[in-house]
């Protein structure tokens, strides 16, 4: 099994790592011997063609799937056999490809619901609704940070698709993640929304690590510090975008004839 990468003095610390990560379904290896280092205050992209194993890696890291082999370390703690809810409480939080907001609640109330868990209010059902008012200040701060403050009283169902994805980012930030995993955050978006969310992710990564699966290579080139390319469940190449985009194996397997 590969050893952890040596960290130089100027590199941000590794906050999430995997070594020899493997997932086998029957006779099929969906992920095979993947090593990964995600660093604080960086955006790390996981890219590759359809079926490369990207979502499986996400599910392994967040413990929705148990690895067949290998290990996962979060903030210095081995979480290889830790349950998903405990992993989330330790600071590893993910979004999904499908927007997951409460459509019939307001934008503000969506964020207040998310804030209940870190404020120990999620299971205290006997408390009056007014007890949630102490969450308002933090909820307003989060909405301001992602540019949704003016829409705080709108129903989530009335938001555009892109704004719903922004709201989802706000609700994940409410859980105060140390590492944020975003699964295709730009999927289905127009150019204006892509620019908006790219800016939000860049700001989010100032204080935490971001690992994202993304097919939009312009976004990857623009905001990602490090790129890992998967093919058939294995790492094909890694490095910054300029490096991997010039790798002939990557251009053949994923990027085709696209100019870097």
The overall strand count is 10
Assign an overall shape: globular
Residues in helices, as a percent range: 25-40%
CATH superfamily of the domain at 14-80 and 205-255: P-loop containing nucleotide triphosphate hydrolases
Give start-end ranges of low-pLDDT stretches: 1-6, 121-127
User: For the report, how would you describe the main beta sheet?
Assistant: 6 strands, mixed
CATH class category name of the domain at 14-80 and 205-255: Alpha Beta
Helix segment tally: 9
| Element string (H = helix, E = strand) | EEEHEEHEHHHEHEHEEHH
Structural class: alpha/beta
CATH topology of the domain at 14-80 and 205-255: Rossmann fold
Secondary-structure arrangement, i.e. CATH architecture of the domain at 14-80 and 205-255: 3-Layer(aba) Sandwich
Q: How would you explain this protein's 3D organization?
A:
With 260 residues, the chain is an alpha/beta fold. It has a domain at 14-80 and 205-255: Rossmann fold, CATH 3.40.50. 31% of the residues lie in helices and 24% in strands. The strands form two sheets. A six-stranded mixed β-sheet has the order 6-7-8-3-9-10, with helices on both faces. The longest helix is centred in the last third of the chain and has 14 residues, at 191-204. The two termini are 33 Å apart.
């Amino acid at each position: 099994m590969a050893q952890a990468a040596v960290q130089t003095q100027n590199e941000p610390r590794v906050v999430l790592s995997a070594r020899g990560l493997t997932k086998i379904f029957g006779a099929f290896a969906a992920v095979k011997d993947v090593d990964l280092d995600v660093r604080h205050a960086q955006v790390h992209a996981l890219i590759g063609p359809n079926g490369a194993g990207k979502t499986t890696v996400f599910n392994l890291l967040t413990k929705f799937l148990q690895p067949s082999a290998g290990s996962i370390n979060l903030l210095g703690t081995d979480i290889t056999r830790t349950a998903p809810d405990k992993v989330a409480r330790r600071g590893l939080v993910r979004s999904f490809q499908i927007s997951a907001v409460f459509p019939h609640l307001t934008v503000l109330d969506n964020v207040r619901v998310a804030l209940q868990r870190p404020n120990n209010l999620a299971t205290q059902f006997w408390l009056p609704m007014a007890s949630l008012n102490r969450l308002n200040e933090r909820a307003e701060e989060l909405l301001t940070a992602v540019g949704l403050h003016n829409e705080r009283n709108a129903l989530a169902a009335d938001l555009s698709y892109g704004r719903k994805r922004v709201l989802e980012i706000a609700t994940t930030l409410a859980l105060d993640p140390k590492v944020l995993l975003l699964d295709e955050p730009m999927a289905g978006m127009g150019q204006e929304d892509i620019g908006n969310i790219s800016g939000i992710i860049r700001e989010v990564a100032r204080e935490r690590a971001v690992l994202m699966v993304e097919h939009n290579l312009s976004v990857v080139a623009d905001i990602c510090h490090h790129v890992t390319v998967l093919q058939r469940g294995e790492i094909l190449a890694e490095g910054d975008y300029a490096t991997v985009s010039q790798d002939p194996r990557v251009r053949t397997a994923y990027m085709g004839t696209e100019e870097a």
